[in-house]
Structure formats: structure tokens, C-alpha cells
């Protein structure tokens, strides 16, 4: 890795820090993948496909992804309200990165991964690792 063109840079200013700030966390990569497979997708359908995610958490994550320019939100003026989410061009450009991460995980996942989850209680919810 010392041959890397970024090896002399300060880690705090390293470009992957920006990338991780955009896609880091428990939900963002999953949200991006689901949107990419089902775009445009409505909020409730997205929430159903993700599974155990609260309304508030999904709302916050979508707002952050939209603010970062990865997701576009289209609101239709009708009753009941209709909102659809899709990936922006910037969001589409992240798919090869997410695919590479997924492929790496596929190649290196331990055989007992499904049975080796650890539950950690937090103040707000149970988080599964």
C-alpha cells in the first residue's frame, strides 16, 4: 500500500474520509442499493424492503442522502401525497464502489457469519452486528 498515490497524505484529509462520510453508517449503503434496484421507489415500499428501520431513521437517512446529492426526491401534488426516490447521477456513480465492496464481502465472508451475530443494546434500539 505504500505505493499508493495517497500514501503521503494526512488521513484526516484523505478522499475516502469524504466517501465514508457520505455512505457510512448502518443504513445508507442498503438504502442506495434498494433504490438502485427499484427506482423510482416510494417511501413505504422502501421501508418494507429494508425491514427493521424506524420511520424517523429512514427519513433522516433519506434527507442526508438527498442533501449530499446521491438521491433525488420527487413530490407529486396530490392527495394522498406521493413521493418517489431515485438515484441521482452522483448516486449512480457510487454503484461500482458499492458493488466492489459487496464482491469483497462475498469473497471473504466467514462460513459461520449468519450464526455469529452479536446483539448490542443501545438506549434507543437493538443494533445487530
Automatic annotation (TrEMBL):
CDD domains (UniProt xref)? HTH_ARSR
What InterPro entries does this protein's entry cite? Answer: ArsR-like_HTH, HTH_HxlR, WH-like_DNA-bd_sf, WH_DNA-bd_sf
Protein keywords:
DNA-binding, Transcription, Transcription regulation
Which organism's genome codes for this protein?
Breznakia pachnodae
GO molecular function annotation: DNA binding
Listed name of the protein: DNA-binding HxlR family transcriptional regulator
HTH hxlR-type domain location: 14-113
Amino acid at each position: 500500500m505504500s505505493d499508493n498515490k495517497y500514501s503521503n497524505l494526512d488521513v484526516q484529509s484523505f478522499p475516502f474520509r469524504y466517501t465514508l462520510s457520505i455512505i457510512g453508517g448502518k443504513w445508507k449503503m442498503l438504502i442506495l442499493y434498494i433504490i438502485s434496484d427499484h427506482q423510482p421507489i416510494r417511501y413505504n415500499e422502501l421501508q418494507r424492503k429494508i425491514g427493521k428501520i424506524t420511520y424517523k431513521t429512514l427519513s433522516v437517512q433519506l434527507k442526508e442522502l438527498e442533501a449530499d446529492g446521491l438521491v433525488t426526491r420527487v413530490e407529486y401534488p396530490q392527495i394522498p401525497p406521493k413521493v418517489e426516490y431515485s438515484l441521482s447521477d452522483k448516486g449512480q456513480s457510487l454503484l461500482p464502489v458499492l458493488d466492489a465492496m459487496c464482491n469483497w464481502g462475498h469473497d471473504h465472508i466467514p462460513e459461520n457469519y449468519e450464526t455469529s451475530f452479536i446483539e448490542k443494546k443501545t438506549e434507543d434500539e437493538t443494533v445487530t452486528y
